[in-house]
Specification:
four-stranded antiparallel beta sheet, three-stranded antiparallel beta sheet, 199 residues, elongated, alpha+beta
């Protein structure tokens, strides 16, 4: 598959061989190594860019930081022993993992959503990479769809709410519908009872 006209968007990760490329009018997602499966997602069909922060990166960074402190203490305790070099290497490795966690600002799941599918891009598993990818992809989407104004966003939100109410089989409440006032704590509600008195 010729990719000379594509710009690399995401590469392979530790647990995935997926790659993604930015084309002129679409995002190309390629899965596999020897037998590749390609999926084209047109920029004009993308409805949302999804970034979901996860706790995995924070947990790994915390464990690496604790390991660095522990191995440093053990290394200093074995300063005059032959095992000093081994403990030094282990401490440096855990320190590097901790530094990488701080640099990438934690982990995240990145994906794009269309009307018919949600595609997760596994090569963008950190918050730093996700933020950079969002900027790149948003420029392509805006070039294809135009910039979304606040009025258009509100209209789309109202249309989505109406569709959700219709799916439940109920009419959406009108904007001007009366909303009962909140009950003040410690005070009785001044509503009329069935016989004209107050409850």
């Amino acid at each position: 598959m010729a990719r000379s006209r594509y710009q690399k968007f995401s590469g392979r990760s530790t647990f995935s061989v997926q790659q993604a490329y930015l084309g002129e009018d679409h995002l190309l997602v390629v899965d596999g190594v020897y037998k590749e499966r390609a999926k084209r997602i047109r920029y004009e069909d993308i409805e949302a860019i999804l970034i979901c922060p996860t706790k995995a990166g924070a947990v790994v960074s915390m464990l690496a930081g604790l390991g660095t402190m522990l191995f440093t203490i053990v290394m200093l305790a074995n300063l005059n022993n032959s095992s000093f070099v081994a403990w030094l290497i282990v401490a440096l490795v855990t320190a590097a993992i901790f530094a990488l966690g701080l640099y990438h600002r934690g982990s995240a799941v990145f994906g794009v959503q269309t009307a018919v599918q949600t595609v997760i891009l596994s090569g963008l598993g950190s918050r730093r990479k996700s933020a950079k990818a969002t900027t790149q992809l948003a420029q392509r989407i805006e070039a294809a769809q135009g910039r979304l104004t606040a009025e258009a966003l509100l209209a789309a939100h109202e249309a989505q709410r109406s569709a959700a109410w219709a799916a439940r089989g109920r009419a959406k409440p009108t904007t001007g519908a009366a909303v009962p006032p909140p009950i003040q704590p410690g005070r009785a509600a001044a509503t009329n009872g069935p016989h004209g008195g107050q409850l």
